[in-house]
Amino acid sequence: MGIEQVRIIEFPKLLDARGNLSFLEEETHIPFKINRSYWIYDVPGGEVRGGHSYYTNEEVIIALSGSFDVILDDGIDKKTFSLNRSYYGLYVPKNIWRQMENFSTNSLAFVVASTVYNEDDYERNYEQFIADK
Ligand code: TYD
Question: Considering the domain boundaries, does residue 60 fall inside one?
């Protein structure tokens, strides 16, 4: 399981003069059962989030508003994704080190996750992450 499993999921978009609409359905668009959603907002300029991997949790990350970069690292390869469209989701499998940075003003990161929150599922030590490979 590595970075080759990371992919962009495109959600439907209904373009309308009244404003656009997108949606996601677990069964149609998400490659796991959704057990949690969370969102990250009001990130001060220059701040970095993440800096961890999960042992079991999988996620889809969406830039609902604004933009930010997600830097992914499977211990061998690194890849940066710049998210700036609300109809794209970034699928991040388990065991991928990830960092989020370059948040634009008023950006909103929405995340659907496969597990409920569990601090024991986090690896926050990069050396340990590499050693576990
Ligand atoms: P963390 O996952 O470290 O944030 P990020 O990866 O975006 O930097 O979470 C920050 C804090 O919030 C930490 O104390 C755990 C808590 N938290 C929850 O209680 N529930 C959640 O669903 C998430 C994602 C975090």
Answer: yes
Comparing C-alpha atoms, which of 24, 18, 93 is closest to residue 58? 93
Mind listing the pLDDT tens digit for each residue in 18-51?
A: 999 999 999 999 999 999 999 999 999 999 999 9
Nearest CA to ligand 1 atom 20: 117
The total number of structural domains that make up the chain: 1
Name the closest-CA residue to atom 22, ligand 1: 117
Assess if residue 119 is contained within a domain: yes
38, 111 in Cβ contact below 8 A? yes
Cα–Cα distance for residue pair 110/40, rounded to 1 Å: 7
Q: Is the pTM of this model over 0.90?
A: yes
**DSSP assigned state of 46:** T
User: Residue 71 sits in a domain of what CATH number?
Assistant: 2.60.120.10
Range of the domain at 108: 3-13+24-131
How many angstroms separate the alpha carbon of residue 133 from the centre of ligand 1? 24
User: 34 lies in a domain?
Assistant: yes
Q: Which residues are catalytically annotated? A: 52
Q: Are strands 49-54 and 13-14 parallel, antiparallel or unpaired?
A: unpaired
Count of other CB atoms within 10 angstroms of residue 98: 20
